[in-house]
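User: Reviewer 2 asked us to show a designed sequence for the structure in our supplementary figure. I'm pasting the structure tokens here. Could you produce the per-position amino acids so we can include them in the response letter?
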């Protein structure tokens, strides 16, 4: 049983890249040998990436950009919950998903 902190990101040994949803399940499977976990914190949120900027008006909307945003801000966290809840200690554990304000649809004062 692992008694420390494991950081997971696109470049870690057991990596997750929300542009590649299959990586979420693969990472969970790789980490299953280190469980059960008492605390899993998932922090995610993207407004734009190097390939595109946040849209400022409806004419700027592009389907591929919206799909990428949904993969990172909605689908990825949902799949993380699906696969990582299986790694939690059934008696005493928490899984928290925290999104960045830039992923908010309701609070859009900054544009995008």
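Assistant: Here is a per-position design you can include in the supplement:
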């Amino acid at each position: 049983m692992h008694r420390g902190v494991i950081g997971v990101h696109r470049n870690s040994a057991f990596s997750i890249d929300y542009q590649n949803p299959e990586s979420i399940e693969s990472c969970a499977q790789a980490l299953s040998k280190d469980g059960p976990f008492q605390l899993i914190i998932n922090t995610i949120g993207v407004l734009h990436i190097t390939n595109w900027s946040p849209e400022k008006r409806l004419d700027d909307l592009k389907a591929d950009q919206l799909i990428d945003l949904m993969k990172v801000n909605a689908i990825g966290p949902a799949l993380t919950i699906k696969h990582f809840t299986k790694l939690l200690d059934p008696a005493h554990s928490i899984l928290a998903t925290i999104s960045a304000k830039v992923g908010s649809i309701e609070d859009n004062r900054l544009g995008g």
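For the response letter, you might also mention the following. The radius of gyration is 16 Å. The helical segments are 22-31, 63-84.
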